[in-house]
Amino acid sequence: MSTNETSHTPSADMPTRSQDLAAVVVAIGAFALGLWIVLDIAAMEDNPIASLSGGIDAKQYPKWLGAALMVLAATVIVKPAVRLFTLHGRPDDALPWKHIFSVIAALFLYVLTFRQLGYIVSTTLFGATLMAAVGMRRPVAMIAFPLALTLALYWIVRLIFDIHLPFGRLWSGLFGG
Predict the structure, then answer these.
(1) Domain span at 35
(2) Rounded Cα–Cα distance for residues 136 and 152 (Å)
(3) Going along 128-176, which residue ranges are E strands?
(4) Is residue 153 classed as helix, strand or coil in its secondary structure?
């Protein structure tokens, strides 16, 4: 069989049309969020993300965050979108709309709570929400893994790029920082 014939034939381990549609919907939501960050939040004189940061490049952080989110969403959307339009005969199953919209809502809530909760708390909660949306039910793992990843990313960004990610109003109110 040639590569043209195999690229149009569905296989057993290939995602269903519904799974591809779900990936496209979530990627569109992520792209819209990134665009919103770049055009609206980063354009604010006192934007809620950079206004709490102390690093030299803190004002640029929202632009980079939004642009990175748009690039990530664009790369995620390509493969499922191509499969949606080129592969036929794949099974359809019920879309998990509840999970799809919970992921998109979590993205927007993450940005909206960033100022009050800060990077560490809001990112950890965002990661836990995503893990719950995909079916994780172990509470310790749902908090421990996102917290460890968030702290590792915080220190990488802090040490390598000298960007002071915000601790948020909650942290400042509780610990006076």
Answers:
(1) 3-175
(2) 22
(3) none
(4) helix
**Cα 85 from Cα 17, distance rounded (Å):** 10
Q: Which amino acid is at 159?
A: L
Tell me the pLDDT tens digit for each residue of 85-131.
888 777 777 777 777 788 888 888 887 887 788 888 888 988 888 88
Distance CA 50, CA 102 (A): 26
Structural domain count, the chain: 1
How confident is residue 24, by pLDDT bands cut at 50, 70 and 90?
Answer: confident
Task: Please give the torsion angle defined by the CA atoms of residues 161, 144, 23 and 105, in that order, rounded to the nearest 10 degrees.
Answer: -90
Q: For the chain, how are helix, strand and coil distributed in percent, rounded to 5?
A: 75, 0, 25
Quick one: how many helices (H) and strands (E) in the chain?
A: 6, 0
pTM of the model: 0.58
% of the chain exceeding 70 in pLDDT: 77
Residue 80 and residue 23 in contact, taking contact as beta carbons nearer than 8 Å = yes
Give the three-state DSSP class for 135.
coil
What does the alpha-carbon distance between residue 150 and residue 143 come to, in Å, rounded to a whole number? 10
Q: How far apart are the C-alpha atoms of 164 and 141, rounded to whole Å?
A: 27
Please determine, for residue 47, whether its predicted confidence score (pLDDT) is greater than 80: no
